[in-house]
Amino acid sequence: MQYAPEDPKEDERLQAIKRLGLLDGSKSDSKFDELTKGAIEKLDVPMSTLTVLDKNREYYKSCQGLDAEYGDRAISFCGHALVADGLFIIPDCRKDERFADNPMVIGKPYVRFYAGMALFDYATKIPVAVFCVKDTKPRKFSVKELDIFLSLAARAEELLNNVSETGLTK
């Protein structure tokens, strides 16, 4: 298994997360919940999250289909997507040497497919979060599904950049 890499501008990234108030109050946000629920419904996947990554953990700002509020960044799929150049897709996690023995692949929730898109802070152009979907079976996105996913991720990025210091959208 390959551990999730650190962003080259990690200190600046963590400062942007703090400035955006993304980890203030770990409660889910209904606007983000609409997007993750929409992803599950429109893409027919069992799991979707909007994940904010700090130094050691990934926190789910919105989580559908997983019974957790956070996870270990080192073994996270989103940790890889955060630093990827564009859309990060793993059609079959069991066939990808970076993830074949990942605890989330060999055990619950038995992730087989992953698609994630880094979400950027508009002010610094640094990635601060990831919008993702996961499935328990291998798959490929159709062009239509890819368009839906990218539209949801773009909306999530807009919402992240409108979060005020109080954690409420402007």
Order of helices and strands: HHEEEHEHEEH
Question: What is the rounded Rg?
Answer: 15 Å
- Helix percentage: 25-40%
Can you tell me the CATH superfamily?
GAF domain
* Net shape: globular
CATH-defined topology = Beta-Lactamase
Question: Which band does the percent of strand residues land in?
Answer: 15-25%
**The CATH class:** Alpha Beta
Give a brief outline of the structure:
32% of the residues lie in helices and 24% in strands. It has 170 residues and is of the alpha+beta class. It has one domain: GAF domain (Beta-Lactamase, 2-Layer Sandwich), CATH 3.30.450.40.
Task: Describe the 3D structure.
32% of the residues lie in helices and 24% in strands. The protein has 170 residues and is an alpha+beta fold. It has one domain: GAF domain (Beta-Lactamase). A 6-stranded antiparallel β-sheet has the order 3-2-1-6-5-4, with helices on both faces. The protein is globular, with a radius of gyration of 15 Å.
Topology of helices and strands:
Blueprint: H1 10-20, H2 30-43, E1 47-53, E2 57-64, E3 70-72, H3 77-83, E4 88-90, H4 103-106, E5 113-121, E6 126-135, H5 143-160
Antiparallel strand pairs: 1-2, 1-6, 2-3, 4-5, 5-6
Descriptive labels:
single chain; 170 residues; alpha+beta; Beta-Lactamase; 6-stranded antiparallel β-sheet; 5 helices
